[in-house]
Write a structure and sequence with these properties.
Rossmann fold, 3 domains, 6-stranded antiparallel sheet, 8 helices, 19 strands, binds FE2/S2 (inorganic) cluster
Length: 352
């Protein structure tokens, strides 16, 4: 079962990686080390009280196994948490951190001799952890395609250079630069043509996995291209770090059932009961309103922190970018995206 409690970890280092991004490393007390063990690709959810508000954000772990815990936080315009992290956090400060979780992880790399990674901007964070694991724990070649505006906005450039020095040809590094005409390499945003160019000489049957992390368009287009090239769908894995509400989601939201549902919510063996309009707030919002201390991160259907299982009744999920089809089949929902669809609904956060 995923541990959705928060634990205090001390910040051991803060490094300014680029003009608008800091990396934050945490000390993990030996008593918590098993809780904070992670699979490359997973993320941490950080929590802080900022101006009296409980703010949580999820950030992928960029360190490799055995390198401690490190995340990168890019400051986004008007981003409450990212501004706080970039401007106010200090080394030595304690921070509330939820143990690692997330499904975008390195899969069995047993077959094939090449793993391909595609990242844009801060999408490098989970990917860098996976690349490190691939290089240090397998004999595979890692092909990394990494898109940025210019070379100054490349997060973890020094770490990547160190990996290139250490592993030589086993790391095939391909920067893609979109806003610097003087750049002497692959130019533009990562797209199908760039993927084709980089992978031209690769025997596609040698690819053991493709891992994509970045904006929705890049992920959708490039994953379709990998499929077209003959990479089986179950070897293509992705994580989106920003998702615009799709037309389908808007449509689904405007077609929610009407009526009221009696919701029973179970978390940590405690039950909360409340009435909820089928076209009203989400199950997560209503549960929190009813007094339940619920886990959440992105509230956008991406991070999976708010996952729960429908034990009785039916719920409608608006957007899902985090649960696998077999989890949906088993009745799991993202509560930040779900509304009741039956007169009675029982949802449990205790089932995994
Ligand atoms: S809070 Fe991230 S998917 Fe629901």
């Amino acid at each position: 079962m995923i541990d959705t409690n928060f634990y205090s970890l001390k910040i051991s280092n803060i490094t300014k990686e680029t003009e608008d991004t800091v990396s934050i490393s945490f000390d993990v007390d030996p008593t918590l080390s098993s809780k904070f063990d992670f699979i490359p690709g997973q993320y941490l959810t950080l929590k802080a009280m900022i101006n009296g508000e409980d703010i949580r954000r999820s950030y992928s772990i960029s360190s490799g196994k055995g390198e401690g815990l490190k995340v990168a936080v890019k400051q986004i315009q008007k981003g409450v948490f990212s501004t706080y992290a970039n401007q106010e956090l200090k080394v030595g400060q304690e921070m509330e951190v939820m143990p690692p979780t997330g499904n975008f992880v390195l899969k069995n790399q047993g077959n094939g001799s090449i793993s391909v990674f595609v990242a844009a901007g801060s999408g490098i964070t989970p990917v860098l952890s996976m690349v490190k694991e691939t290089l240090s724990n397998t004999n595979q070649t890692a092909v990394l395609i990494y898109g940025n505006k210019n070379m100054n906005s490349v997060i973890y450039k020094a770490e990547i250079e160190k990996l290139m020095d250490t592993y030589g040809d086993r790391l095939q590094m391909n920067y893609v630069i979109s806003r610097d005409d003087s750049y002497d390499g692959l130019k533009g945003r990562i797209n199908v043509e760039i993927v084709k160019t980089v992978t031209e000489s690769i025997n596609k049957s040698e690819i053991s996995g493709v891992y994509l992390c970045g904006p929705e368009d890049m992920v959708k287009n490039t994953s379709t291209e990998f499929e077209f090239m003959g990479v089986p769908k179950d070897k293509i894995h992705f994580e989106l770090f920003f998702v615009a509400e799709s037309e389908e989601a808007k449509e689904a939201e405007s077609n929610l059932a009407t009526g009221t549902s009696r919701v029973t919510m179970i978390i940590d063996d405690e039950e909360f009961e409340f009435e909820l309009a089928m076209n009203g707030p989400t199950i997560l919002e209503a549960g929190a309103e009813a007094g339940a201390d619920l886990p959440f991160g992105c509230k956008g259907g991406v991070c999976c922190t708010c996952k729960a299982k429908v034990m009785e009744g039916k719920a409608k999920m608006i957007q899902n970018y985090a649960l696998d089809p077999d989890e949906v089949e088993q009745g799991f929902i993202l509560t930040c995206q779900s509304h009741p669809e039956s007169d009675n609904l029982v949802v449990s956060f205790d089932e995994y």
